[in-house]
Each structure stands twice: as C-alpha cells, then as structure tokens.
Amino acid sequence: MRIGIVCYxxxxxxxxxxxxxxxxxxxxGHDVHxxxxxxxxxxxxxxxxxxxxxxxxxxxxxxxxxxxxxxxATRMLEVREEAGIDLFHVxxxxxxxVSAFLARSMGGDLKFVTTLHGTDITVVxxxxxxxxxxxxxxxxxxxxxxxxxxxxxxxxxxxxxRTPVDVVPNFVDTERFRPGxxxxxxxxxxxxxxxxxxxxxxxxxxxxxxxxxxxxxxxxLPARLVLVGDGPDREHALxxxxxxxxxxxxxxxxxxxxxxxxxxxxxxxxxxxETESFxxxxxxxMACGVPCVSTAVGGVAEVLxxxxxxxxxxxxxxxxxxxxxxxxxxxxHGQLATAARRRAVEHFATERIVxxxxxxxxxxxxxx
Length: 368
Known about the structure:
Blueprint: E1 2-6, H1 13-27, E2 31-36, E3 50-54, H2 68-83, E4 87-91, H3 96-107, E5 112-116, H4 119-122, H5 131-140, E6 143-146, H6 149-159, E7 166-167, E8 193-199, H7 207-220, E9 223-229, H8 234-243, E10 250-254, H9 259-264, E11 268-270, H10 280-287, E12 292-295, H11 300-304, E13 309-311, H12 316-327, H13 330-348, H14 350-365
Parallel strand pairs: 1-2, 1-4, 2-3, 4-5, 5-6, 6-7, 8-9, 8-11, 9-10, 11-12, 12-13
C-alpha cells in the first residue's frame, strides 16, 4: 500500500509511535510518506521506502497564528497527487483529522484513519473551543483507533458512542529495546540503584513529583536518578532536587537517540504522571527488562499488567514506598524484570501491532 502518515515531530508518544510505524511499514514493503512541520525526532535518514514531506507554513502579518491546518491539508493533497497515496493515517485528532477532512473536501475520496493518543481527547478535544470540530473529524474518519481501552472509553464519554473506536495499543521494537549486560544492584559492589524517568517534561508528567519520590528513596538506599528528555518543567524539577538536597544524585542527560542503552542500564523506571493514556516510555523500559513504578492513572495498568507497581496520583511518598519495596528485594526485582520483558514481547511487539493496523487499512480500502 501507499500510505501517508501525519504526525507531530516532537518526542511525545504520538510522534514516536507514528515515526516507528512508518519505519515498520516500510520494512514490510509498503511505500510510506511522512508529513509534519519538522523532521520527526525518531526518523532516521536513508531508510528505504520512507519519504519525509515538510509542511511549510507561511506567516502573514494578518495572522496572529499561522494556519497550520490549512497548509497541512494542501500538502496532503499534493502528496496524494504526487505519490498516489491510498490512505492517510493521522496521529492526533487536532488538527490532523480536521486537515484530512478538509483535504478530502477539496480533492475527492480521500480515506483516512485517525489514531487518538490521549491529550487530543482528554485535554484538547474536551475543551469547549475544540469539542465540536474534534467530534466532527472523528465522525468523518474512515476508522478511529485509540491506544488503550481507557482512552476509547474516554472518547465515548466525551463525544458520545456514535463513532466506533478500535483499540490498538502502542508497540515497541523488542530487538532494539532489550535487556543489557548490566548486573542487578545486588551483584554490584556499590549496590547503587539506578532509576530512570523519560518524558517530554510537560506539567502533566509531574517531573517534580518524580524528584520528590526519588529524594525519599535516596535517603533509604544508595541511588541515582537519570532524567531523559527535555521540556518546560526541567528547571523547576532540578530546583526541587536542590531544595531537597539530592541534586548531586539527579542527572539530566537531555534528549537521547540511543534511549535503549540508558534504559538497559536502569534498575527501575519511575513515572508520576497526572494522566497517561498509555505510557510508551514505560513499555520501552519493560522491553529492556526494567520494572516500572507509576501513578495509577489512565491506561498505565493496561500496559504494566502485574509486572510493576502503581501508586495514587499526587502522593510521592506512596510512589517512593512502592519503589523501595522492589529496590530492597533482589528476588522480587528479578521476577518483575523477567515478567516485564515477557509481557512486552508477547503483547506489544512491533509485528503484532503493525499487523493490526494493516488489517484496519485493508478494511478501509475494501481489500482482502
């Protein structure tokens, strides 16, 4: 198939999944065209079968904000005409699904699948200013998917049950993300526990709560926290670390192209999110054999199963207590690490999930 994929280029889950989808589809022989206003962070150069099309937005003095949705709709039509696109897969409802409908209105029978990732429904879509166009765009989609049952239920709650939603979870490359050769802390001389958090450091990720939980852990055990990513809450979180006296044990390493290496060296992944429709970074940690401790929000439980531990939102003390129970018990840690890797491979491996999307594409196109 000739598939157009539309996404944001940022390091959030939707952009990562869309880019990895493009790469996986290309490996399976499809002709893939990726559209965004900038080159996605996970898009590697020179991959056969994947072509990137940048959406140029012209800023006129008349516009307070450049109309990206209009520019995207035009670019989608151009790519469709140039490459003979069979179907577009748009990740994130606003504005991508709206742009797809506009492109269809201008250029005939353009088919598109919309994948919902979380805040496009729970935050943006439920906003009064965007609720109606979001509902309309979903109703006009040839198929709608959500990355968790939680998000599918939220979609029906916010927009009503008229639009069928297929639940297709995110996926992980289990060959790239796999356990490393680092020995567990109990087999190391220093017995230092390495904790990792990876995100886009937005307020919803509650990075300061991650640091607060770590400060409690650090008082009880030799430990180090590695923060992977970047975003608006970075400086605040580092200031909290300084206030709590653990700044010398908190290391911010920024964005990393080789995240799998950092995860494979970790003993625990720590998340304190306010809302999380899936938790892609946690799945990548699981694939590396790293147990996860997270707030009990959104679709996290669907991802972790019984391979990690959950704590109430907004309670760093409870988060630290759950983490300490694992980090004090080498046998429990080993059991959870093995179970996490097994769950990632059995339920969320790339081939399994990409095949599910291919089936949806075939259904939309009326193909076997």
